[in-house]
Backbone:
């Protein structure tokens, strides 16, 4: 794989990770709303996180190596953990 292909792949994985983090926030906010007494502060916090992930997706550029590395390092393990908890982890 060429260096350019590797960089583009890492960028696409970072975008996917941010999308999965957005979905996780959305799911958690929906679960909180469905409780008999929802914690509205938690819902607002989750919605703010979701908005930040959406902004991060829009702002991330393929040549933003540090941004891509940060997303992979910070959120990659969280996504792996969430997928493993739901039996969807890869065998890599």
Residues:
């Amino acid at each position: 794989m060429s260096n350019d292909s590797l960089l583009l792949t890492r960028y696409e994985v970072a975008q996917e990770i941010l999308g999965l983090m957005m979905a996780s926030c959305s799911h958690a906010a929906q679960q909180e709303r469905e409780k008999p007494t929802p914690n509205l502060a938690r819902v607002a916090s989750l919605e703010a996180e979701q908005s930040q992930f959406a902004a991060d997706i829009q702002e991330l550029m393929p040549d933003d190596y540090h941004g891509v590395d940060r997303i992979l390092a910070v959120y990659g393990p969280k996504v792996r953990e969430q997928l493993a908890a739901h039996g969807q982890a890869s065998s890599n």
Summary: The chain has one domain: 3-85. Residues 43 and 89 are 27 Å apart (CA to CA). Residues 3-85 form one domain. The longest helix spans residues 3-33.
